[in-house]
Design goal:
It is a single chain. It is built from 12 helices and 9 strands. With 265 residues, it is of the alpha/beta class. Strands 5-4-3-2-1-9-8-7-6 form a 9-stranded parallel sheet. Helix 2 runs parallel beside helix 12, helix 4 runs parallel beside helix 6 and helix 10 packs across helix 12. The protein is globular, with a radius of gyration of 17 Å.
Length: 265
């Protein structure tokens, strides 16, 4: 059983839902990511999504775009992303880690080399925003061979046929984009999420996480009532932007502890 599957099974047995924070590697400081990850894991994060900086992130809103730009300006690339995972694994061998990003950095790095190095670093899942299932059959096969889960997005506009295609290709969990827009958008609609989750679960047997637009404990709790996981990114990235180096891990930890408490209340 993969770390991701084991995590969801343990939570299911205890009647709890997964909290999945997202941070961009190298932001707000080039050398702080592993410490921020550890602080979040200790505060109650169940899985950590790491954003791989890219110059043209089509699904990201202004907050995450700017974080990626700052990270790129600091020289953060795939090598540094995998190094952050390795550093985190020195202190935490259990918390799953998923990389979220775009095809270009992976293809420039080399798909086979990426999969091998990601496995060696301790990566558990990979979500490539611009790799639909039918266009990454070989890449998904490489991931599965290495024991890494290929994770896919499901949009509010996804047809039943598209959801079924994702179900056939995905591993670990699926990520439901809760709104028609980019990360951090402010028009979150819990009723739309409640309507969509049963449609997804009619085809997908994996856990379903929900992200895009979740900014606080109340919204996270509402999502946790209907989904298996809550993904929160832009609000955390924005909070970290103003933190100084010494405080950044503590800022992240306090934020995650508050979201975790709200979800478990």
């Amino acid at each position: 059983m993969s770390r991701i599957a084991a995590m969801f099974e343990a939570l299911r047995q205890h009647g709890r839902k997964a909290l999945i924070p997202y941070v961009t590697v190298g932001d707000p400081y080039a050398d702080a990511t592993a410490e921020i990850m550890l602080a979040m894991a200790q505060a109650g994060a169940d899985l950590i999504e790491l954003g791989v900086p890219f110059s043209d992130p089509m699904a990201d809103g202004p907050v995450v775009q700017k974080a990626g730009e700052r990270a790129l300006a600091r020289g953060i690339g795939m090598t540094q992303v995998l190094a952050a995972v390795r550093d985190f694994r020195k202190a935490d061998a259990l918390t799953p880690v998923a990389l979220m990003g775009y095809a270009n950095p992976i293809e420039r790095y080399g798909a086979e080399r990426f999969v091998a190095d990601a496995k060696a670093a301790g990566v558990d899942g990979v979500l490539v925003v611009d790799y639909p299932p039918e266009e990454c059959v070989e890449f998904a096969r490489l991931l599965r061979q290495a024991g890494i889960d290929p994770i896919f997005l499901i949009a509010p506009t996804s047809s039943d046929a598209r959801i079924a295609a994702v179900a056939a290709a995905a591993g670990g969990y699926v990520y439901h984009v809760s709104l028609r827009g980019v990360t951090g958008a402010g028009h979150f609609d819990i009723d739309a999420v409640k309507d969509m989750i049963p449609r997804i679960k009619a085809h997908v047997k994996l856990p379903v996480g929900v992200g895009f637009g979740i900014r606080d404990g109340a919204t996270a709790r509402a999502v946790a009532d209907v989904a298996d996981a809550v993904v929160i990114g832009s609000a955390l990235v924005q909070l970290l932007e103003a933190a100084d180096r010494a405080e950044a891990p503590r800022v992240a930890g306090r934020f995650i502890a508050g979201i975790r408490a709200a979800m478990d209340a």
